[in-house]
Amino acid sequence: MHTGSYINGKWIHPDSKEIIKNINPADTNDVIAEFPAAQADDAVRAIEAAKAALPEWKRTPGPERGRVLWRAANIARARADEIAKVMTREEGKIFKEAKGEVLKGISVLEYNSGEGYRMHGKTMPSEIRDVFTYTIRRPLGVVGLISPWNFPWAIPVWKSAPALVSGNTVVFKPSGVTPATASLLAEIYEEAGMPDGVFNMVIGYGNAVGEAIVNHNDVRAISFTGSNTVGQALYVKAAGRGAKVTCEMGGKNAVIVLPDADLEKAATAIQGGAFGSTGQRCTATSRIIASPKVKDELIDRLTTKAKGMKLGSGLDETIDMGPIVSEKQWKQNLDYIEIGKKEGATLVLGGNRPQHLSAGYFVEPTIFDNVSPSMRIFREEIFGPVLSVATANDLQEALNIANSVEYGLSTSIFTQDIDTIMRFVEDVEVGMIHVNEPSVGGEAQLPFGGTKSTGIGEREMGEDGLNFFTEVKTVFINFSGKAKVSAIR
After folding, report:
1. Active-site entry in 48, 110, 282, 381
2. What is the CA radius of gyration of the chain?
């Protein structure tokens, strides 16, 4: 594993007094590595390298670009356990979840490798006799990718793969919390034969590296995943200079449980959605809106399941839930638990740091009952294993409560009634809907993203992900053999 930045096909150690310490959140005494923090001039070097590499990569046939991604997928598959162990050690999620994330990224690489053969142009009839019309998609140029710490493999892959296969060159800024997993991705692209300057990675802080990427006129698009505060400010800056921008930000995802629900199925799904990945997913289940007829039994089932969860280092394969990623995030979780108590919610389970795990940033699985939709713990993103339970007497009330927050990423409903399901699908204000399954999850061929404050710009993954990194050219070919004046004004 390299501990520097990757620019123009070379690993460099920036001359910097700032050091990014990569710490294991399950054991803060374990320093995994130290990365010298890149500065703004390093980001500019990466942008210049990407700009220089663009003409040749753009001319490379799409299928050949796709073959580089296919080779990367094969390399990643051979190194899957290694990637998962590094991810578990630096981010905290349990090994099984980390391995699943690696496999998800491999699926994204495989899907996008095939996109090099397609690129989704269209032919359409012209209104003019003897004129052939069609569209083609072409790359934007140099693109900037800014990713978070919670999915340090999958999100960089689902940003970079469509950008690369469509002919763009990339400057990638990973989170400083999880630089090791990011460096493995750069290693894999290098081994797969990515030409120098096509994929560049700069490890540094947002106020230096991130700002340089966002503000540089040669960066034609920005794809960002992270907090609303950062994303909204980034959007104003990048869009203000004419760049294309997509931001995937917060979530406060609700699961609706109606009287006819299979409660065991619902409880199992909610447990995974709320406490899987320690609740550190933008699609995590953080709210339950349950019928009063089933709420108590549902909470009993959830409490039993949560009590049975074993906490600890995710490298131990008997562990069910790992730590919070950092001290800052851990304190935020504990602060919100105190806010919930002060607001008058009933603490059913958890809310503490396990004493036997005092060397790490652990929080017990936490459940609040009797939560009002106006409470902060019900409205604000906590990003941890904290679940709030409210009630609704019917579907319409449940919809009103679900839609009352500023976010609109993911949701789920548990019911057996098809009329209810279809009405829910039509009226709930989110980008992704699950029926009788957890609120989490996505697939390489399907768009990922949300509405309202969750998302700005086009969705990620699938055809939508490729579309973001391309622009459409419309072509008119006159084959009449005569000069014509168009009848269309």
Report:
1. 282
2. 24
**Residue bearing tokens 């609040």:** 368
List 247's β-bridge partners, or say none: 224, 456
Three-state SS annotation for the chain: CCCCEEECCEEECCCCCCEEEEECCCCCCCEEEEEECECHHHHHHHHHHHHHHHHHHHHCCHHHHHHHHHHHHHHHHHCHHHHHHHHHHHHCCCHHHHHHHHHHHHHHHHHHHHHCCCCCCEEEECCCCCEEEEEEEEECCEEEEECCCCCCCHHHHHHHHHHHHCCCEEEEECCCCCHHHHHHHHHHHHHCCCCCCCEEECCECHHHHHHHHHHCCCEEEEEEECCHHHHHHHHHHHHHCCCEEEEECCCCEEEEECCCCCHHHHHHHHHHHHHHHHHCCCCCEEEEEECCCCHHHHHHHHHHHHHCCCECCCCCCCCCECCCCCHHHHHHHHHHHHHHHHHCCEEEECCCCCHHHCCCCCCCCEEEECCCCCCHHHHCCCCCCEEEEEECCCHHHHHHHHCCCCEECEEEEECCCHHHHHHHHHHCCCCEEEECCCCCCCCCCCCECCEECCEECCCECHHHHHHHCEEEEEEEEECCCCCCCCCCC
- What distance lies between CA 104 and its chain's CA centroid? 12
> What distance separates the 2 farthest-apart alpha carbons in the chain?
85
The 10s digit of each residue's pLDDT in 289-314 is: 999 999 999 999 999 999 999 999 99
Q: Which of 261, 271, 144 is nearest to 212 (CA)?
A: 144
pLDDT-derived band at 114 (thresholds 50, 70, 90) equals very high
The one-letter code for the residue type at 420 is T
**Per-residue pLDDT at 441:** 86
CATH class of the domain whose range is 253-435: alpha beta
* Domain boundaries defined on the chain: 5-249+454-475, 253-435
Please state, in angstroms and as integers, the Cα–Cα distance from residue 250 to each residue in 253, 280, 352, 381, 382, following that order: 10, 11, 24, 7, 10
Q: Which CATH superfamily is domain 5-249+454-475 in?
A: Aldehyde Dehydrogenase; Chain A, domain 1 (3.40.605.10)
What's this model's pTM, rounded to 2 decimal places? 0.95
Q: Which residue is catalytic, options 91, 248, 364, 460?
A: 248
Residue 248 annotated to the active site: yes
What's the rounded Cα separation, in Å, for the pair 384 and 311?
Answer: 14
d(CA 307, CA 329): 23
- pLDDT(487) > 60: no
Residue-level pLDDT at 489:
46
